[in-house]
Amino acid sequence: MELLPRLLYPLYEAHLRRGLKGKPQPKHVAIMADGNRRWAREAGFTDISHGHRQGAKKISEMISWCEETAIEVVTIYLLSTENLKRSETEVALLFDIIADVVTQLADKAHNCEVRLVGHLDLLPEQMAARMQEDAATTKDKDGVIVNVAVGYGGRQEIVDAVQNLIRSQADAGVAAADMAETVTAESIAKHLYTRGLPDPDLVIRTSGEQRLSGFLLWQAAYSEIWFTDTYWPAFRKIDFLRALRDFSQRSRRFGK
């Protein structure tokens, strides 16, 4: 980093922070951490693992930034069901990196509670067990709740929620003919992976892509969405603060 930008960066960050005081802020932020591979290629790396590893480091930074705000929940999209169709080598690398991310977030340096959302049965058994064990060590922490979406698909989540709702009604002795009446927006929400948590107020997607790609399709119905061309490994604190500033200036209508 050149000298002038290095000197100006803290001043600009302080300016953004001052501008957020007293303004509406999100309680739940969802992150689509996209662009790791493109960042690596454009940075001149022939091995895209550099992008994934740099992106993993950024997650820990991001949670630290959130801990300095009023944000209570973060959901971060790390591995979709579609990502599992990539090459065997890259998928194995992603498994290792994601497991390391969960380990880092479970470390005492963070006061966050880690929750895993998605189909862990799509992961290698040993890897899934390691992630579950690490996440379990954080259940008594009272800081930011971090949902790690891994093996996640938005449509599959809704299917799972409806199936679980129907099973619960069957277990309760509800007749099949009466089950349709029990399927409501509220009852489905109670069976989502993120049940018990508020829907995201703000969804951030990096890398210039402007779509949800199946992420939190139900929960993000009325979320504000903020896109940036910046690749995830290059995402800075001032980018994060800009997203919060933009959120604070929007008038939320919730479909009205």
From TrEMBL:
Residues annotated as binding Mg(2+): 34, 224
Keyword Metal-binding: yes
EC number: 2.5.1.-
GO function terms (MF aspect): Z-farnesyl diphosphate synthase activity
Note on how the cofactor is bound: Binds 2 magnesium ions per subunit.
Cofactor section: Mg(2+)
Residue sites binding substrate per the record: 35-39, 52, 80-82, 86, 205, 211-213
CDD domains the UniProt entry points to: Cis_IPPS
Pfam families associated with the record: Prenyltransf
Top-level lineage group: Bacteria
Presence of keyword Cell cycle: no
Keywords, alphabetical: Magnesium, Metal-binding, Transferase
Active site positions: 34, 83
EC category name: transferase
Subunit note: Homodimer.
Role played: Catalyzes the condensation of isopentenyl diphosphate (IPP) with allylic pyrophosphates generating different type of terpenoids.
Family per record: Belongs to the UPP synthase family. Z-FPP synthase subfamily.
Name listed for the protein in its UniProt record: Isoprenyl transferase
Organism this protein belongs to: Corynebacterium massiliense DSM 45435
Organismal lineage: Bacteria, Bacillati, Actinomycetota, Actinomycetes, Mycobacteriales
